[in-house]
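Researcher: Structure for this, please.
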Amino acid sequence: MSRCKHNDNGFTLIEVLVAIVILTVGLLGMASLTGAIIRGNKLSNDLATATTLAQDKMEDIRRIKVTGYSNVLSETKALCSSPYDQYKREVSVTDDSPAPNMKTVSVKVYWGGASKEDHNVELKTIFAR
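Model: Predicted structure, token format:
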């Protein structure tokens, strides 16, 4: 009986190609996931910044309230300071509150794109005169 020894220590070309395809699919999935995470972090940062800018303006209005509501006016303003130049702020003051001695104040901060509805934060409150 004659026995031939076969050397089966390596990988075949097909096995290597299948491994490369599986690795490529996994890496492409990770790359797209990384991009989505980066976009989500940017949106979260923009949302936190816009909320802070709206709260700052609302606090300014509360300080004005002490001197009288006649000083509180509606306005639309682009924020020109360096890190906030992409944000625009809109303040609206209306007298159509539930009671005649109250005013509704709305502060809306929006950013990104031509439409105000793309990304925005709006804070509303009712002040008594």
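Researcher: Any notable elements?
Model: The chain has a mean pLDDT of 83. The radius of gyration is 30 Å.
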